[in-house]
Design a protein that fits this description.
Elements: H1 2-31, H2 39-58, H3 67-88, H4 94-124, H5 133-146, E1 154-155, E2 158-159, H6 161-189
Antiparallel strand pairs: 1-2
Length: 191
C-alpha cells in the first residue's frame, strides 16, 4: 500500500509542478520583458490569463513583477503541500504549512532557473536559430541573471558566467531554501 501511496504522491507532485511551471513562466517572462509575439509566450498568456485576470484587478503589478502570478504560484504550492499532508493522514500547523509552501516556491524557482540556464548554455554551443520561439523566451528569462557577469568571466572563447550563475543558484538552494524547509518542517510538527 505504501508503494501505491508513493506513486500517487509523485503523480500529484508532477501535476502541481506543471501547473506552477506555467505561472512561473508567466511571471519570469513578464519580468524579463519577453516578446509577446512569441508563440510560446502567447501559449503561456492564453492559459494563465483566465486565472490571473481577476486576481490582477485586486493585486496589480509591482514594477515588472506580476504579483498575481506570484500569488497563484504560492497558492499552488500551498495546495500541493496540503494535499500531500492529507495523503499521509496528518494535518500540519498552519504556520509550518505556510513556510513549507514558501520554501517549495523558492526551491522551485531556483531549480527552474538552474534548468533554464543550463539548457540555454547548452543550446548556445550549437547553431540554434536565435529566432526560435523557445530560444527567444529562454533568452529573455535568463538574461537578467547573466547580464551582470556577461563578458567578465571569459577565458579564450569560453564564457563561464553561466557556470557561476548555476553555482550561485545551487548555493541559494543549500543556504536559503534548505533551512527554510527545515524551519517549515519544525513549525509543521508544532515544536
Amino acid at each position: 500500500m505504501i508503494y501505491l501511496l508513493n506513486a500517487f504522491s509523485l503523480l500529484l507532485e508532477i501535476a502541481f509542478d506543471l501547473l506552477a511551471t506555467l505561472f512561473v513562466l508567466r511571471l519570469l517572462a513578464e519580468a524579463g520583458r519577453a516578446d509577446f509575439r512569441n508563440p510560446v509566450s502567447q501559449f503561456v498568456y492564453r492559459y494563465t490569463n483566465p486565472v490571473l485576470a481577476p486576481v490582477r484587478r485586486v493585486l496589480p503589478n509591482w514594477r515588472r513583477i506580476n504579483l498575481a502570478a506570484l500569488l497563484v504560484c504560492y497558492l499552488v504550492m500551498l495546495v500541493k503541500r496540503l494535499v500531500l499532508f492529507a495523503l499521509l493522514g496528518t494535518m500540519p500547523h498552519v504556520a509550518g504549512l505556510l513556510v513549507l509552501a514558501l520554501a517549495d516556491l523558492l526551491d522551485f524557482v531556483l531549480v527552474f532557473y538552474l534548468v533554464l540556464v543550463f539548457g540555454w548554455s547548452l543550446l548556445s554551443m550549437f547553431q540554434v536559430s536565435p529566432y526560435h520561439p523557445v530560444m527567444g523566451l529562454v533568452e529573455a528569462i535568463v538574461d537578467p541573471l547573466l547580464r551582470p557577469l556577461r563578458g567578465k568571466l571569459v577565458v579564450g572563447m569560453l564564457d563561464f558566467s553561466p557556470a557561476v550563475v548555476m553555482i550561485i543558484l545551487l548555493l541559494a538552494r543549500i543556504l536559503i531554501a534548505a533551512p527554510l524547509f527545515d524551519w517549515g518542517e519544525h513549525l509543521a510538527r508544532g515544536f
